[in-house]
């Protein structure tokens, strides 16, 4: 009780003693500053410092134990001509596009279905979200068993219906396909739940009006659900971009030692992603300078996609604005 | 009742936060040792790398000293954690186990103590000479001390060999596969008559050939040997490719496929170190009694095995070395073997007669006798710190194995890539 009453008096006192002395404010509000300090201290230590340090390291050669030697732009120069790095960039983009498009489509579809008046809604929601909270190590074992070449379920199924077998974990494109399936399986439910939240914010009057006008379910989906969900869809596109470009866990656990080397993304490095390559260089090759350069290259790449995303959002808003204006003129 | 005002609450929170920050900062001011207790030595190790009984005894008192041992199980990414504490020069263990990749630490060898100065040389005669030689850094200083070893042999399924009309008893098989040509011929017959493979991947053949070779990727001055005509690496490559062509290799890339192949008998063998006896028992328990071990073509090699080292900051090197001497004595290596199946690096251990050979799984054949004999003829070799940079050979070999590349193109790409990496890292 006492704390609520004093909380209520706090704002009035701020207004009453209207003395804009900054140092005085710092003295008066030090408990508040201290209260928010832990986050900033942790951020400085575990966020900002490593970022700054990796920038410094990217201009050096360091094996993590010996002395650090400055090499200028040599790491970046090597990076530009490193076929393994560009292979990793290509793999990452293929897996990202290949997984994001179907994943968001399925997520939207699932959310739309879950939003209908069906029974056992809660059970379905939990079921779709479960893959997201499953331990990755357990998942890797299950996926390894399903997609292994000679004794896997997937190839057993293909054999059963008379189709040729696929080297799910041994051949270039199949490895990417397996990783895409893994990403879709893991993240579709997560995105579906976000879409579902967005759906529930759409006023039911719109649907009622559409029904009165005789719109079909498909028409409702295309003309009401999708446009009203645009901000949510953009949000999931952006988070999927971040997740897709920094894809690491799936190839790391699924292809741990496949291809004869640790953390190399399987035969021919077909499942090597940018972050896995960075991890490989830092923690199996102990080439921290080069790993830092890879990290900054990823930063540049991610920035490019962030700008594209941002422009898409801005143009979309501009488009709506222009349309509205044009509509006004016509009227 | 004393009401808790908001200001008071914030004040308390601030005080607690400040206290925590002070504690955190003071901890950061660089404590070199992990333990402040002057009588406690800290050892870093991983699961099943030491006998829990011996560790428990040393935790009471390290024999012959007044010190006690604290054993910290570090778990995964061991090297990363050890290197982190070495790089930061703080929270460094007094002793640390290091896996078969001890060459990784050659460039920073001054982080570890010279064991010769502590009297380690007196024990040289106790150990297999090739293992002792791996304990020396390229500068000739003894900075590592032997733990276990992994002499290799050719594991095979007696029943499958017998059904295919091949020699099946260990002596017969050993006599029939004295050269790799004979081994490939036997494997080709097995593929033709029973459609069974001898090993899982080309990588196994490639690695095991090099593990049994006196010459490896680099010479003792870290100069590359692999690109010379007729190098051991090239021979290993050719053997792996021939294994592929003759159908001796199953091409089972994933662990799941490999385990299933051993359980079902579609792969009837493996070449690996002595520790694989435990692995196969756990992987394919239903095949008990059917496995045998024969001498692989050429000399046996070594796969795996580990070392122990004393950090430069070790608080009591004499006591730490006393611990190592005690734990790695032939008698205590027997206990380590009986507890956690670490294969002894001291020939005298096998003469105690106190080791349980667990020969049931091998139909009465004594794996201890087999591998202790094999360990006698493992060639002495030099493992360069740069061997971590030659992964391209295995990458390209895997591409040849799944048909994406021709052998010669793969070899050339591998040499070019390894040279590129070596050039980048300033080795050549």
From TrEMBL, chain A:
Keywords: Cell membrane, Membrane, Transmembrane, Transmembrane helix, Transport. GO terms for biological process: transmembrane transport. It is found in: Cell membrane. The keyword Lipid metabolism does not apply. Its main location: membrane. Signal peptide: none annotated. PROSITE patterns: ABC_TM1. One of its GO terms (cellular component) is plasma membrane. The keyword Cell membrane applies. Pfam families: BPD_transp_1. Coiled coil: none annotated. It is a multi-pass membrane protein. The chain crosses the membrane at residues 33-56, 93-114, 126-146, 228-248, 293-313. InterPro entries: ABC_transporter_permease (IPR051393), MetI-like (IPR000515), MetI-like_sf (IPR035906). Residues 89-309 form the ABC transmembrane type-1 domain. It comes from the Bacteria. Belongs to the binding-protein-dependent transport system permease family. This is Sugar ABC transporter permease.
From TrEMBL, chain B:
The keyword Signal applies. Keywords: Signal. It comes from the Bacteria. The keyword Transferase does not apply. Gene3D superfamilies: Periplasmic binding protein-like II. Residues 1-23 form the signal peptide. PROSITE patterns: PROKAR_LIPOPROTEIN, TAT. It holds the Pfam family SBP_bac_1. InterPro entries: Bact_solute-bd_prot1, SBP, TAT_signal. This is Extracellular solute-binding protein.
